[in-house]
Automatic annotation (TrEMBL):
Enzyme Commission designation: 6.3.2.1
Source organism of the structure: Anaerotignum propionicum DSM 1682
GO biological process terms, semicolon-separated: pantothenate biosynthetic process
Lineage: Bacteria, Bacillati, Bacillota, Clostridia, Lachnospirales
Active site feature: 36
Pfam family, one: Pantoate_ligase
The name this protein goes by in its record: Pantothenate synthetase
Gene that encodes it: panC
InterPro entries, per the entry: Pantoate_ligase, Pantoate_ligase_C, Rossmann-like_a/b/a_fold
Subcellular location: Cytoplasm
Length: 282
């Protein structure tokens, strides 16, 4: 069922709750692909009822970012959700979520000062505001987020802790194209040449993994190897390449002694893509 009204979605969930049913939630910005589908499939397996939101959230886009251009196809998205077995596709209007005075903000400090947070000022405030609204409206038992946006997972977990949401966050693995490119709604922006060039992201992460597999533990050497891999691609412009603690996202410069997150953000032409791996040191 496609539901636009907040009141209606609340009533549906109230009814489910009165029947003792569990509720899973998958927030998305639409233009659904296999990455989103994997989150929805898992939610359908683990919950009696599933809500997916499709909302291109204006407050998480910077003034020079791609809010207008972001791909939108609600008809197709609805078909994908129905096929997967999602029960309600929630598509609120921005006017019903936001008010002109913008009185309330949700800011998670620390974790949002680095990586995408420092490159996209205000981005995580927008994400946290809209996700906290959805959590209040839907009050799910479990909610599903992709590891492709690893910093988003860390930030949302912190918000759930700090605001006492009684919701389990379920991080889901990155789904990739056959050649390694992480699935992303923004991949549609890529020209044929750029699509080939975009492989530099997964290639540089694979090279980091094989360097670690050989026993290298110096984070600076690892970073240098990844940078030199990416700069060989003329269409690529590095936004960041980091080696960070997988929990608190602090940069690591010296010896890697425990599990690390290796997140990267690279412009391919005008399109900014992100990817990462988690490497466990046993
Ligand atoms: N390749 C993927 N594998 C697993 N989860 C994914 C993947 N791509 C997106 N997701 C997850 O789907 C949810 C909704 O993401 P979103 O709608 O922003 O899609 P997206 O493809 O990440 O778009 P973009 O990166 O262009 O903003 C997020 O939790 C995100 O991490
Ligand atoms: C969680 C989210 C749907 C909030 O708009 C968005 O940041 C996304 O798609 O990852
Ligand atoms: N998946 C993250 C949404 C964004 O880039 O705004």
């Amino acid at each position: 069922m496609l539901v636009e009204s907040i009141k209606e979605v609340r009533n549906i969930i109230k009814q489910w709750r009165s029947e003792g049913l569990s509720v899973g939630f998958v927030p998305t910005m639409g233009a659904l692909h296999d990455g989103h589908q994997s989150l929805m499939e898992r939610a359908v397996l683990e919950n009696d009822r599933v809500v997916t939101s499709v909302f291109v959230n204006p407050t998480q886009f910077g003034p020079n970012e791609d809010f207008e251009a972001y791909p939108r196809d609600i008809k197709r998205d609805y078909e994908v959700c129905k096929k997967v077995g999602v029960h309600v596709v929630f598509t609120p209007q921005a006017e019903s979520l936001y008010f002109p005075d913008k009185s309330t903000t949700v800011h998670i400090s620390g974790l949002t000062d680095v990586l995408c947070g420092s490159k996209r000022p205000g981005h995580f405030d927008g994400v946290c505001l809209v996700v906290s609204k959805f959590f209040h409206i839907i009050q799910p038992d479990k909610t599903y987020f992709g590891q492709k946006d690893a910093q988003q997972v860390a930030v949302i977990k912190r918000m759930v802790r700090d605001l006492n949401f009684d919701i389990e966050i379920v991080p889901c693995p990155i789904v990739r194209e056959a050649d390694g490119l992480a699935k992303s709604s923004r991949n549609v922006y890529l020209s044929h040449e750029e699509r080939k060039a975009a492989l530099v992201l997964s290639r540089s992460l694979e090279s980091a993994k094989s360097i670690l597999d050989k026993g290298e533990r110096n984070a600076s050497i690892l970073k240098a190897a990844m940078l030199s891999c990416i700069i060989q691609e003329p269409l690529a412009k590095i936004d960041y390449v980091e080696v960070v603690d997988s929990e608190d996202l602090h940069s690591i410069y010296g010896e890697i002694t425990h599990t690390v997150l290796i997140p990267i953000a690279v412009y391919i032409g005008k399109t900014r893509l992100i990817d990462n791996i988690i490497y466990e040191i046993s």
